[in-house]
Amino acid sequence: MAVSLTPLIDVVFILLVFFMLATNFNQWRSLSLSVPGEGGAAATEETALRLEVLSNGGLRLQGDVLGLADLERRVAGLLGDDPGRAVRIVPEPAVPLERIVAVMDRLSLAGARNISLDED
Predict the structure, then answer these.
(1) Which among 78, 87, 79, 80 is positioned nearest to 116, based on CA atoms?
(2) Where are the alpha helices (DSSP H) in the chain?
(3) Nearest-5° Cα angle at 112, 51 to 59
(4) How far, in Å, are 6, 8, 11, 13 from residue 3 at the CA level?
(5) Looking at residue 85, what DSSP letter applies?
(6) Which residues pair with 89 in a beta bridge?
(7) pLDDT tens-digit profile of 58-100?
(8) What is the pTM of this model?
(9) Alpha carbons 62 and 86: distance in angstroms, whole number
(10) Alpha-carbon distance 104 to 84, whole Å?
């Protein structure tokens, strides 16, 4: 008596479709953020780099307008040998969170270790 393989193939196909639909290929990473304590921000206010994230997609670093592609090189140059120098990100109200996270990623690639998110 021959065994039919058709039901087995159906089950394998259903499992294949299930795993294709249930799999998520997004890569989730975490960002470490710390809330500044009292007086902590004032101590670094004078030496901190001020980076404004504009609602039109641009960036303003220490008053100079630049794009996201130039940010890493400029910040790496300004940080020099002091990666602990504070970088304050000041976004405009209409800036989406994704843009801010992209800027934070670029700052991390530039070697910035003390990044704070500020509102003015």
Answers:
(1) 87
(2) 6-22, 40-44, 68-79, 97-109
(3) 20
(4) 9, 10, 15, 18
(5) S
(6) 51, 117
(7) 899 988 899 888 899 999 898 887 878 889 999 998 899 899 9
(8) 0.66
(9) 13
(10) 15
